[in-house]
Specification:
Layout (H helix, E strand, L loop, with lengths): L3 E3 L18 H14 L2 E8 L2 E8 L7 E6 L22 H8 L4 E5 L26 H18 L3 E7 L1 H10 L5 E7 L5 H8 L14 H4 L4 E6 L7 H9 L8 E5 L12 H7 L8
Parallel strand pairs: 1-9, 4-5, 4-6, 6-7, 7-8, 8-9
Antiparallel strand pairs: 2-3, 3-5
Length: about 280
């Protein structure tokens, strides 16, 4: 059976809740910039495929063999259950907060296509890349291309990929295509969007790749699935369904945090959570 680890808690549907009072785009961008600046991180924009992806990296980089890369969630994908957002830039970039809270080692942040002011331009002219095609092949390819450039910037040889929410799907799909990912961590991750859309009774993500279809390519990568038992946006059943589909003895470990929701309290306690994760041991 799949191994489940229950952790003691430390002292909307995704992007579909009503969004009254959502900050304007400029305020959302300024908020991310200010978070990064507090830790002396700087923004970069990487052209990758048809997209321009926002990243944040430390202003001073000490090259090291290992890079931990944090991939953002779906952001503000929807205004209502039937109206897509005009710009998916997150109101709270939780993956950025996680990256900034990492207590040791090199870390970098990668936003998603069409976030941070790219909506309405080029490939992001329509909302498909933050709604039904959020995990499209070209999205995965562009993300992997940006990761190559970040890896080179840090002089890294190996990667730990950490994805939050929909960013976990991108992390898994990228890892399935690479040979340098030695650890994959999902935080409240949507790793089986077919199970997710069925549970939430919403339309399928047509045109999106599904990480659950790539289990054979992912079985050799150590994976940790961090879930909140109080998460109503990506319920724990999604991680369980994904993990249960792996061969016996190869299932990813699921760590459950009883009081955590989709957004609380990952960033607040990330230093402790990250430190408790087993160190990457490489791929077989």
């Amino acid at each position: 059976m799949r191994k489940t680890i229950v952790c003691l808690a430390l002292p909307g549907v995704l992007g579909m809740a009503g969004c009254a009072g959502v900050p304007p785009l400029a305020a959302r961008q300024q908020y991310a910039d200010s978070l990064a600046a507090q830790r002396n991180w700087t923004p970069l924009t990487l052209e990758a495929g048809p997209f321009a992806l926002r990243t944040y990296v430390p202003a001073r980089i000490r090259p090291a063999d290992m890079l931990t890369l944090y991939i953002e969630g779906d952001g503000l994908a929807w205004i209502t259950s039937s109206q897509p957002s005009s710009d998916p830039t997150p109101t709270r970039p939780l993956a950025l907060q996680l990256a900034l809270a990492q207590p040791a080692g090199n870390a970098a942040y990668l936003g998603r296509p069409c976030q941070y002011g790219q909506a309405g331009q080029g490939a992001c002219e329509a909302s498909r890349y933050w709604t039904r095609q959020r995990f499209a092949p070209e999205v995965v390819s562009a993300s992997s291309e940006a990761i190559d450039r970040l890896k080179a910037r840090f002089g890294a040889q190996q990667l730990t990929l950490i994805g939050y929410s929909g960013g976990a799907a991108i992390a898994a799909l990228v890892a399935a295509q690479r040979h340098d990912v030695v650890r994959l961590v999902s935080v409240a991750g949507n790793l089986d969007h077919q199970t997710w859309t069925r549970l939430q009774r919403i339309s399928p993500l047509s045109g999106s790749l599904n990480p659950a279809d790539y289990r054979s390519a992912l079985a050799g990568i150590p994976q940790w699935l961090l879930v909140g038992d109080a998460d109503r946006i990506v319920p724990r059943q999604v991680a369980d369904a994904y993990a249960d589909g792996f061969p016996a003895g190869r299932q990813p470990a699921v760590r459950a945090f009883p009081t955590y929701t989709h957004s609380c309290c990952w960033a607040e306690h990330w230093a402790e959570i990250w430190t408790a994760l087993p160190a990457p041991a490489g791929r077989p």
